Amino acid sequence: MRDQRPTNGAEPAVAGIALGDVPVPDTAASRAALQVASDYHSPALLNHSVRSYIWAAARATAQRIEVDYELLYVAALLHDIGLVREFDSHTVPFEVAGSHVARVFSAGAGWPAERRRRLAEVIIRHMWPDVDVSMDPEGHVLCRATAMEIVGRYADDFAPEFRAEVLEHDPRLGLATQFLTCFQDQAARKPDSSAAGAVRAALETRMADNPLDAPEHPGDS
């Protein structure tokens, strides 16, 4: 297992991969997770979840990080389910609420207790500043993928051509505005939550600098 960043700026950290190279699990659980996400997410949040998996799985594939792709896929599709009205919680942070939904989902899918626990961990940890790859490879790649999606962190790890291919396949559909509104709402109702911390840490300003929403992708913003 390894996770290397470029040292001379000449080559992206996630190189030599195209969208068609990203493995997408075709299992009953992965298909059901996509159906649940499609039923409850807005189009922008659904595309965000799909892209989060793509960035995460591309990093794992290109850097030979050993991950459970099915677990990673389900986690990516459900990592923001706690933001939607039907699963929102007024008592716990959205990522914790989402982890409970995922535990119920994966129990229904027949996953054993340890795998259900791991799924919940990955979803909670996507809000961490970073996750040690040796401790949690799925959490590591998803955490970096979601940070890239929202504030553009790690965007330079991917070749511009690959980023453009992903954005054309799954456009952003005004994600920035919708996501910021969600986080501001979470912050107002749950001031001790991670979402509130992000808002206090100038989330709006950092989102405005996201290269994924740059003018060269006029149809995506």
What does this entry look like structurally?
The chain has one domain: Hypothetical protein af1432. It has helices at residues 28-40, 43-62, 69-78, 94-108, 113-125, 137-151, 160-169, 175-189, 194-200, 203-208. Helix 4 runs antiparallel to helix 5 (113-125) and helix 5 runs parallel beside helix 6. With 221 residues, the protein is mainly α.
Features:
221 residues, mainly alpha, Hypothetical protein af1432, 10 helices
Brief summary of the model shown:
This protein is an all-alpha fold and 221 residues long. It is built from ten helices and no strands.
Instruction: Assign the structural class, choosing from mainly alpha, mainly beta, alpha/beta, alpha+beta, or little secondary structure.
Output: mainly alpha
Shape: globular
User: Quick one: CATH superfamily?
Assistant: Hypothetical protein af1432
Order of helices and strands: HHHHHHHHHH
Tally of strands: 0
Give the arrangement of secondary structure elements.
Elements: H1 28-40, H2 43-62, H3 69-78, H4 94-108, H5 113-125, H6 137-151, H7 160-169, H8 175-189, H9 194-200, H10 203-208
Helix pairs in contact: 1-3, 2-3, 2-6, 3-5, 4-5, 5-6, 8-9
